[in-house]
Amino acid sequence: MRDVAVIGVGMQKWGELWETSARDIFVESALLAMDDAGVDTLDAMYVGCMTPGLFAAQEHLGSVMADYLGQGGIPATRVESACASGGLAFRSAYLAVASGMHDVVLAGGVEKMTDISGGEATFALATAADMQWEGVSGVTFPGLYAMMAVAHMDRYGTTREQLAAVAVKNHRNGSRNPRAQFPMEITAEAVINSVKVADPLNILDCSPITDGAAAVIVVPADMVGRAGKPGVKVTGSGHATDTIALHDRDDFASMRAVAQSAERAYAMAGRTAKDIDFAEVHDCFTIAEIIVSEDLGLVEKGKGGPAAEAGETALDGRIPINPSGGLKSKGHPVGATGIAQVVEITEQLRGEAGPRQVKDARIGLAQNMGGSGGSSLVHILEAM
Amino acid sequence: MRDVAVIGVGMQKWGELWETSARDIFVESALLAMDDAGVDTLDAMYVGCMTPGLFAAQEHLGSVMADYLGQGGIPATRVESACASGGLAFRSAYLAVASGMHDVVLAGGVEKMTDISGGEATFALATAADMQWEGVSGVTFPGLYAMMAVAHMDRYGTTREQLAAVAVKNHRNGSRNPRAQFPMEITAEAVINSVKVADPLNILDCSPITDGAAAVIVVPADMVGRAGKPGVKVTGSGHATDTIALHDRDDFASMRAVAQSAERAYAMAGRTAKDIDFAEVHDCFTIAEIIVSEDLGLVEKGKGGPAAEAGETALDGRIPINPSGGLKSKGHPVGATGIAQVVEITEQLRGEAGPRQVKDARIGLAQNMGGSGGSSLVHILEAM
What we know:
The structure is a homodimer. Chain A is of the alpha/beta class. Chain A has 13 helices and eleven strands. In chain A, strand 5 (196-198) and strand 6 (201-202) form a beta hairpin. The two termini of chain A are 18 Å apart. The interface between A and B is large, with 63 and 63 residues.
């Protein structure tokens, strides 16, 4: 298979975008990415979106987005893996280029979540869980991740303060990201005293409901240089699934799909966790970042909480995690999140991240997951 | 890229399956395909499904289906292109194998459509159209295809009787297919006198609401022979999009995405329409089969109606179309349809189609489309 590189990225400010539709926010990001890459036609497109049917009463997104982007005719594929739909779109685009099938491919993600009520949105998101066995009992995602948090606290002594440290760190990073939905710093006290959602998780442990899109352009690595920007090479891609239901797992304090997808990506890239300079990970809840950073091997198992508290994962720490602000501060339009991670890593590797630039960033890792870890995608990107 | 072959197919009887869930009907077909192929583990899986969120309140189907199939851990990807989701799953699996990324890949499709009311199902299906411009006016698919029928009748003199001939022919074929939802013969009079849905289309011009699944196993062509069955090689794959809205097209009596996807598949296979022995095409409405058979080049433009009426597309005709009974008689669980086409073509090329066997079948074509032609997939399969 051919080497593949990212040559363009696009993303606008995320938030509650009541004045624009899903297709408009997608097209805005896609045009920015095409402009950044210096391309005006695409050979194919992949769109990551979790549930446009429930959120926006519109399916057939490949056709919709290719048409509205002025690229009607090209093969356009929508992929879905719940909140990992963006990561899956990136992997699919990677494969389309690596295989030799297509040259200039757009991978985009989008979700328009605020056109329905909060209760309806919670239901729509719950369809990422096992609706036949989990949904029927009324459990939604804060409840599932709260059970993981309780298990992790019990097993490893993770504390309420350590959970809060993740949110504080991500908001500090997000305050330097002009595209973040909630670009303000918060204190540990604010997190700990915020309203309870599902014990031990409070509202400030949870990522928000967001409208947003993001897009990147991938091409054969030998095309890099076209637009005069530094290239970013995709060296590893790992994808794994796990039981859809949390209750079918041996362990609530670890996510097998995360470890397995990482193992596959590391093997492909010829890298280990020690080689990674920084990572964008799926902090849909504070506990998720702690578990994921352990399962990726970036911190020792059970030490994710202390690492966050000690500043090891801060922007200037040993292994910066979520320099973008993560899902927590930047927002979490579910289908777009995995692509936004690649946008951030690309900008970091190009040295374009401004006030949130990670020092000496050469190798970045993106981890995006669906549900309570029923699927996970890991990508490794390296400066060329 | 490597040559790719189908080595196993699985499908059960379609219909109103009120006793089983989407995951169960998917797993049943997947197990049949794995058994047929003689494999018990998969390297990856692609699931085609249009809108499980609206039909069955369950997304994250890659994880759900891999888990329930006992293959948890493998990369499992759901793809969507409205009613062409099955064809897109097949193309995605083809690419995964052709690229060298994976060896044994399952492509499956599923839709569970009868767990909601008919009105809700009509709404769910309408999300394949442009909900922002078409849906808002209240138009649904029978209305869109009725407009195409009127244009085709006006332009080419296609008659009400010719539309009926398509339904009569497909039910005759379907009466020989034990897995068809409506395996009974019908008369032209019955079609013409059936209740009006959207002038000139009557209820017997329309494909039904169906629960069903289908699955196939694809592998590198050099693995064929493993299970002792004749291999079926995938020689062409074409995918195209068009405007999502019908009103944005230059021509209502033709579908550009169908012609373009066919052109791409023919070019890859080194074949022309003249080489095709038989085809499974997307007859969601009788007029659709007429237009598609023309746009594929299987009959002359404007002559699809007369060809059906004269028996040219019958099982023993010049170019048999929809030997399986098509969407009309076999049923149309939207995400499964494109895979079921490949099941039929494989069985025909293996000489296993029994009373509906096409004589001297060596090269078959599958055409699956989304919406009013906003996307189309064409595959060419050949006996090895």
